[in-house]
Write a structure and sequence with these properties.
- By secondary structure, this protein is mainly α.
- The protein has one domain.
- 60% of the residues lie in helices and 0% in strands.
- It contains four helices and no strands.
- Helix 3 runs antiparallel to helix 4.
- The protein is elongated and about 55 Å long.
- The relative contact order is 0.15.
Length: 160
Amino acid sequence: MAMILIPGLITWQTGQVNPGWSLASPWNEALYISGLGLILAGLILIVKTIALFMTAGRGTLAPWDPTQKLVVRGVYRHVRNPMISGVFAVLLGEAVLLGSRPLFRWFLLFVLINAVYIPLSEEPGLRRRFGADYERYTKNVPRWIPRLRPWNEPVNGDNR
């Protein structure tokens, strides 16, 4: 929805697409490569986090089948919200690749929505479900800006 349908509707409605942002070579090629790189990196991050939800968390993204265990492996050792970071990267990559200001505004709105939603809605639910383990995790792993070195403390007796 957020990565395909809404950007597609925005692009279709506005018709504002300017690949390369009207810049001369080699700058326009740098923007193409940057946009594609952001999209690829975001998709890889999303796929990795979904796989971790299914294997380490024993659940899915669906609210009716949430993870049963707190996932603190892989990219989750560096940042608490890597899946949303992946979506951010895809949305920014689409705006850069297509040279679209309306898509860039959608990216900014999506970031703002999640900056409000995650701390006010998602995190309290995780605190209720995972208690002290989640509290310890939030004190050691940042919400948005990744740690350079992974957090290695065990959670739920599971050594990372």
